[in-house]
UniProtKB/TrEMBL annotation:
Name of protein: DUF5817 domain-containing protein
One protein family per Pfam: DUF5817
Start and end residues of each stretch annotated as Disordered: 95-119
Organism of derivation: Haloarchaeobius amylolyticus
InterPro entries: DUF5817, DUF5817_C, WH-like_DNA-bd_sf
Positions of transmembrane segments: none
Length: 174
């Protein structure tokens, strides 16, 4: 059993499921006995209760005519669920090859095998290698398309900012 009820204190409308002895307005907190609440509709159908409440709210805002042209919530939910187009469908309908699009997303536009920014690659080297030297970090980053000059500058900046520490030629992330 569902009931669309109203609050005499703040004019809020809400739906109550079942029949409790008292009800409390979710907006203002006013508590009343269920029997004393103004019930606009009582129904066994939750969708019908939602439709009635929505219609009443639309009428309050002067949008009753526009609301009357809409389908019920249950029909709208079905339309939305049926009308969703997934990524693959969209790409195929656009005339694109889905496999090619996915492959392009995995490639670096500059043609290198690098994944991530140059600074991320330097940090990843610090995470992957155990207390590496500058030369080891340069080699790691170089395999991923990052120049030695950039690595040296990045290490210097990261050390100055306190992100990396250097001791006896060995680096580590803090």
């Amino acid at each position: 059993m569902y009931a669309v009820v109203g609050c005499s204190e703040c004019s809020n409308l809400w739906i109550i499921e079942g029949r409790s002895e008292t009800t409390q307005c979710p907006r203002c907190g006013a508590r009343k006995a269920y029997e004393k609440r103004k019930k606009f509709v009582e129904t066994d159908d939750a969708a019908h209760a939602r439709d009635v409440r929505a219609s009443m709210l639309a009428n309050r805002q002067g949008e009753g005519e526009a609301f009357a042209k809409l389908d019920s919530f249950a029909e709208l939910e079905t339309d939305v669920a049926d009308g969703v187009v997934d990524e693959t469908e969209y790409l195929e309908a656009s005339g694109l090859d889905v496999d090619e699009v996915e492959a392009a997303g995995e490639r670096d536009p500059r043609g290198s095998t690098r994944s991530g920014s140059k600074q991320e690659i330097v940090k990843r080297a610090l995470e992957a290698l155990d207390e590496p030297t500058e030369d080891e970090i340069v080699a790691y980053a170089g395999e991923r398309g990052v120049s030695a000059e950039y690595v040296k500058e990045a290490l210097e900046k990261l050390t100055r900012r306190g992100v990396v520490s250097e001791s006896r030629g060995r680096y580590r992330l803090l």
